[in-house]
Amino acid sequence: MYAPLPGSNEKKIIYEIVIHRPYSDNTNTSYSLYRAASQLEAEEKFNAFMQKLPVFVGIAKDMFTVGGLQKICDILSDNPSWSVAHLVAYFNLTEHAGNAI
């Protein structure tokens, strides 16, 4: 999660949640997952995403796309109590069911 710099003169304060694709994937890609005007709102989303999202996209690498990440974030926003196993079942990725869930 990125926060505004201390002492910043920005008129609009934005907190941003970003996921970076691992360097081991031979790419230097980052995706913005969520932006919020309040730190509390950003921290709530960050906590919902950080526990599940990296694990899930590590298991289902084909979901590490703009569209895939959008779907995952939407589902986690609607169902914050879901586990990685819930995501695997929801997206019908049962072939990944035994991979580190």
UniProtKB/TrEMBL annotation:
Superkingdom assignment: Eukaryota
Protein name: Uncharacterized protein
Lineage: Eukaryota, Metazoa, Ecdysozoa, Arthropoda, Hexapoda
